[in-house]
Amino acid sequence: MTTARGLFVTFEGGEGAGKSTQIRLLAEALRARGHTVLTTREPGGSAGAEALRHVLLSGAAEPFGVRMEALLFAAARADHLDCVIRPALSRGEIVLCDRFVDSSRVYQGVTGNIEPPLMAALERVSIGATMPDVTLVLDLPAAVGLQRARRRAGASTEGATPDRFEKEKLEIHEKRRQGFLDIAAREPERCRVLDASLDVDHIARDILSEVVLVIARQAGSDRDGQAARS
Length: 230
Ligand code: TYD
Prior knowledge:
5-stranded parallel β-sheet, 8 helices
């Protein structure tokens, strides 16, 4: 089942907040209701963006500074939108994306200290008018998230070193948490904050009811639009 203009849902939050688990559960629940769902992630999600993901997460771009990294995140996002996200939305699919523009606003803008005019320019060229319909912010105290992320890295990939972003200090993670909360407060129409310390199934139920509501609202406004045109 597809909708008239697709639905773009993004997941944001710090490390260890459980985004990938919640994306998997939401995708399963929506597919069980008959929707066509595409799951994807940033940085990455398209061939060009995955190549940049490797450059960014390996730390290879780090010596060139935060501005260079911000440009690469934006370039990856532009390719991802062109090659994967917009085509899926125009087919009427539901797109669930692990991180999107709010991660740049927080990681590069807030804790990378990139000046707001550059962030705004990068946003304009990378996403244009394609903002998410819904952004789910999984909120967790930084210490808990970092502990979870470390446990996961140790348990699932023996001997693997955390990426360069995961090595950063607790204080920075708290600033990022606040950064996501500030965005959600500024854009309450788009953003929903969820307490990521609650039980996984509880969060999954809240997310599903939120998204189902938005789908129903969208269908309602499409019907109203059609009725007005006819
Ligand atoms: P990833 O391994 O996908 O981890 P996570 O589970 O935290 O999503 O790593 C992505 C890293 O890239 C993460 O530390 C956040 C960072 N990032 C940015 O700094 N800016 C961005 O625009 C995006 C999308 C991610």
